[in-house]
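Module 6 notes. Inverse folding takes a fixed backbone as the condition and produces residue identities as the prediction. Think of it as a translation problem where the source language is geometry and the target language is the twenty amino acids. Below is one complete input and output pair. Work through it position by position during the lab.
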């Protein structure tokens, strides 16, 4: 399952994680691949602002015109704010992944139903179920706003002023365009390319009436579970279908990808249209080394510990929403572990270093300003300073998503106590916000706190004052139990008394408050410095992006920003595990894998799948191509030169995981559900004749 995209979640001053970004595993160079590195390492995520017409012509002898790109763009969709999708019929039928739709699909189940176990198919239009809160966005307008934004930033002084000027300009532009006739009613979003080298305003038409049409069982949509995640050969029916309604009727649209279930050919050019979430391929070597040495290992450890806590809880709770969260954690652990392996690969890092030298030489040859040519050195200096702040900004962060509710509340009380001492009137106005938290799940609260103390002990060391105070000779698990048993911060009367006499907080012997008084000031000091450095880094990265565009122009695509892209590749095998991967897998392989594991849980099959008709077994199920994808591309249609949907992207292989920071296509493969496989499953297993007829036109 390729990760869904979500915006980065700030877990501490430095520790940014993207639970839906992809990553990369160990890569072994071959004679077919240059070890030198170069602009091609930045990938193939082309924008619709500057379509790669000449590149497609040169590479594939295929010259799409403006209408081809426009029709492609209008048939593509953004599924909520985390996945991709597309129109696949004239009647508003929408295709996306099962793992994108799982929460939306199960959200419409009724009393007595278990759609994870049974799947869903609406035999008639009236049976299609509206998903409350779900929307899809269609990109209909694009405007280049680069000059206006860069001018505003250039007139500002400090890095903070530049960022504020950028945000103000974004707001001004959106307010201005909201009044333009052609943009009225659209969802407006400013898009950053090349870290600030280019900017655009996108206008989306939003459809809010979206109804579930078809969703397979979880066992088919996520067949193989986390074991098979990021692997190939693959057997997963990771697809779902919805329908957009307009004024209570199915939307009539001219812009859609016709289904072509007849297959793909070896070597055939193929195009993915979707919204890749985030890549950081323009990062400098110094920044990547920071990720390799500090940030990424800490992120993995944090995710493992929280997943373990939720799994222990869910062993008895059996809660679907917790299960989805566990899936997300496990998916991210595997993905980010692959990224770490890539960061530790000397060959890949050498490629990055070589490209950096090439880029610097090209920028110098182009006679770019001297202050710009110092950007790499300034980024390296700032990164060195961030290293010194990492421990306090990470291991002392009072974040309720990682340490539980009580320690962050204790930190809030410490702030309130300082306010009460320094500005009593302000504290009086804020008193109503000081309310004892209600711990709904003590098991998870204790497990999260124990995980935090374990990480603090490993990261800060046993001699650190915070660690000494927290553990006091106990193990992290024992200390967490002690802290929760002896704190009174869940007692409303105690907390109310503290709020009334704010100065008491500074002297209270409550163990949570004692701990917060030691750790929180250190965190604040480190986080404030880190924030200032991060602002400087953001401006410097923008300067680097402007240089990249000045040197290479649109011949090099920008990093992914969860904005609509088109990327190209070919259907192609690759060598793996001492053999060769088939370009296509079949349903026969699905049954072989299930039987080989004796139907164990990850590879079990629902009852309706147990006795398949013989005609199903040789039907294609999944296939591979060299396309450049990442989290957010989940749900993207695979189309051919005729703009026909031939597949649906849902994952990458293990070799593709370093895609966060470099694209090396030798063994990188995207994995898609075959269009013919979707039709075959609907025809032979689900008897979804209405849907088959709509997709195939028969």
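Target side of the pair, the amino acids:
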């Amino acid at each position: 399952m390729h990760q869904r995209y979500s915006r980065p979640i700030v877990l501490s001053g430095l520790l940014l994680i993207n639970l839906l970004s992809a990553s990369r595993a160990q890569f072994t160079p071959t004679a077919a691949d240059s070890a030198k590195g170069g602009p091609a390492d930045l990938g193939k995520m082309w924008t619709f602002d500057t379509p790669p017409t000449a590149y497609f012509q040169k590479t594939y002898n295929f010259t799409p015109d403006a209408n081809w790109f426009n029709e492609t763009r209008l048939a593509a969709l953004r599924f909520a704010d985390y996945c991709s999708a597309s129109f696949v019929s004239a009647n508003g039928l929408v295709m996306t992944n099962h793992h994108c739709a799982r929460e939306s699909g199960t959200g419409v189940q009724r009393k007595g139903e278990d759609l994870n176990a049974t799947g869903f198919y609406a035999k008639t239009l009236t049976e299609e179920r509206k998903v409350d809160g779900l929307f899809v966005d269609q990109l209909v307008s694009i405007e280049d706003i680069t000059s206006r934004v860069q001018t505003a930033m250039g007139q500002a002084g400090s890095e903070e002023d530049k960022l504020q000027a950028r945000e103000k300009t974004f707001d001004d532009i959106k307010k201005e365009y909201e009044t333009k006739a052609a943009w009225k009613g659209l969802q407006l979003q400013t898009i950053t390319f090349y870290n600030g080298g280019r900017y655009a305003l996108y206008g989306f038409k939003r459809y809010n009436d979206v109804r579930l049409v078809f969703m397979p069982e979880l066992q088919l949509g996520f067949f193989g579970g986390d074991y098979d995640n990021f692997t190939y050969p693959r057997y997963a029916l990771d697809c779902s279908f919805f329908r957009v309604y307009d004024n209570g009727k199915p939307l009539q649209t001219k812009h859609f990808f016709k289904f072509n279930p007849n297959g793909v050919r070896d070597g055939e050019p193929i195009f993915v249209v979707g919204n890749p979430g985030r890549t950081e391929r323009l990062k400098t070597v110094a920044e990547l080394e920071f990720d390799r040495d500090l940030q990424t290992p800490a992120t993995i450890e944090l995710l493992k510990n929280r997943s373990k806590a939720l799994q222990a809880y869910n062993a008895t709770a059996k809660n679907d929403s917790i299960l989805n969260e566990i899936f997300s954690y496990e998916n991210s652990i595997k993905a980010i572990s692959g990224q770490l392996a890539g960061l530790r690969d000397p060959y890949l890092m050498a490629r990055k270093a070589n490209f950096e030298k090439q880029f610097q030489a090209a920028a110098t040859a182009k006679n770019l300003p001297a202050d710009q040519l110092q950007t790499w050195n300034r980024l390296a200096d700032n990164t060195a300073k961030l290293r010194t702040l990492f421990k306090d900004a990470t291991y002392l962060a009072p974040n309720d998503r990682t340490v539980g509710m009580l320690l962050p509340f204790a930190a809030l009380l410490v702030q309130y106590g300082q306010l009460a001492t320094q500005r009593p009137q302000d504290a009086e106005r804020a008193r109503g916000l000081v309310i004892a938290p209600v711990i709904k799940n003590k098991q998870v609260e204790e497990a999260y706190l124990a995980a935090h103390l374990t990480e603090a002990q490993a990261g800060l060391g046993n001699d650190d004052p915070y660690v000494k105070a927290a553990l006091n000779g106990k193990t992290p698990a024992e200390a967490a139990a002690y802290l929760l048993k002896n704190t009174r911060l869940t007692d409303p009367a105690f907390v109310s008394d503290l709020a009334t006499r704010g100065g008491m907080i500074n002297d209270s012997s409550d163990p949570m408050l004692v701990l917060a008084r030691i750790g929180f000031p250190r965190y604040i000091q480190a986080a404030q410095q880190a924030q200032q450095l991060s602002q400087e880094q953001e401006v410097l990265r923008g300067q680097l992006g402007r240089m990249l565009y000045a040197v290479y122009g649109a011949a090099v695509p920008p990093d992914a920003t969860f904005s609509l892209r088109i990327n190209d590749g070919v259907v192609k095998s690759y060598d793996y595990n001492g053999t060769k991967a088939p370009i296509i897998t079949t349903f026969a392989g699905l049954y072989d894998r299930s039987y080989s594991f004796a139907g164990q849980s990850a590879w079990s099959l629902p009852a309706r799948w147990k006795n398949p008709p013989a005609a199903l077994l040789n039907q294609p199920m999944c296939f591979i191509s060299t396309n450049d994808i990442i989290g957010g591309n989940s749900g993207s249609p695979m189309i051919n030169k005729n703009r026909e949907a031939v597949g649906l992207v849902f994952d990458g292989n293990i070799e593709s995981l370093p895609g966060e920071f470099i694209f090396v296509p030798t063994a990188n493969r995207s994995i898609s559900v075959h269009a013919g496989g979707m039709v075959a499953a609907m025809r032979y297993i689900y008897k979804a004749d209405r849907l088959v007829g709509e997709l195939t036109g028969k």
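Reference fact for the lab report: The first helix runs from residue 53 to 60.
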